[in-house]
Each structure stands twice: as structure tokens, then as C-alpha cells.
Amino acid sequence: MRTHTALHALSGVVYRDWGAKVTGGNMEPGVARMDFELEGISQEFGRQVEEILNRELVRGYPTEIVYLAREQALTDPDLIRTKVNLIPEWVEEIRVVDIVGLDRQADGGTHVRSTLEVGRVRVAKTESKGRANKRIRIELDDAVD
Ligand SMILES: [Zn+2]
């Protein structure tokens, strides 16, 4: 749950500050990676992401689960950015995980109730996975989930 919330927060920060959309990701308790549609990154990219992400996490953004009608979800810019349109058409009510003020996406997962509960996150590695695809690997300081 902490790792999952950390990933959503990461997605929100990288979108807000770098304008990059998520292209993929994977997670296990305590460790995760996320890929972003991003061209050149600086040497300091990983360190900057880590600093900003941790600064945001300690602000204690609440996480809320909301349900939206599909038509409504398809007009929400954050949900569009996180590809709500890929949800099968028969799904009429979309479950949304809202880290209020930081990230908002259609998601079926379980999350901690506040970003404060995530604890400190390290950016373990950044890798280039192609011209416009960069991977960020994160680790939670205390890997108990
Ligand atoms: Zn999720």
C-alpha cells in the first residue's frame, strides 16, 4: 500500500514538474519502477525527483477513493493523462484514487490514507529506455508494507 501510494505520488510530481506522462510501471512491496515519456534528463534528475517527492510526501496529502461515471471520467484532464480511456467500455463507473492536490488516476488498488504514511522514498536509479522513455526506480526506506 505504501509503495503503491508512493508510485502515484511520483507520477503526480513528474507530471507536474516535468510534464511527463507515465508509460508503464511495476511494483513489489518496498520497491517499484515507473517509466515516463520523457526526452533528455539531466545528471541531477534522479536527485531532484527524490528531493521534490519527499518534500511533497511529508506534506501529508490525503488519499481518497471516488467513483465517477465513465462520461465524467473521460473529461477529467488528470484521468485522461493516466489513460482512463483504456478501461474497457463496459465499465460504467470508474474508481479513482485521488491524492488530493497531487495525483489523480483511475485505479483499483489499495492505498495508505495519507502520503505521510509512505515514509521516505529513495530514487535508487534512473535509466534511459529509449529516446523518449526514462525509467525511475524507487525504494521505500523501510520496506515493510
Ligand atoms: Zn495504482
Notable characteristics:
alpha+beta, Threonyl-tRNA Synthetase, Chain A, domain 2
Task: Produce the secondary structure layout.
Blueprint (H helix, E strand, L loop, with lengths): L1 H17 L3 E7 L2 E6 L8 H13 L5 E7 H4 L3 H5 L11 E7 L3 E4 L14 E8 L5 E7 L5
Antiparallel strand pairs: 1-2, 2-7, 3-4, 4-5, 6-7
The chain binds zinc ion.
Please write the CATH class name. Answer: Alpha Beta
Radius of gyration: 15 Å
What is the makeup of the main sheet? 4 strands, antiparallel
CATH topology (fold) name: Threonyl-tRNA Synthetase, Chain A, domain 2
Strand order of the largest sheet: 1-2-7-6
CATH architecture: 2-Layer Sandwich
Which quaternary structure do these chains form? single chain
**Low-confidence runs (pLDDT<50, min 5 residues)?**
none
Q: Tell me, what's the shape?
A: globular
Task: List the total number of helices.
Answer: 4
Query: Any ligands, ions or cofactors bound here, and which?
Result: zinc ion
The tally of domains stands at 1
Give the termini separation. 6 Å
Quote the beta fraction.
25-35%
Number of strands: 7
Helix share of residues?
25-40%
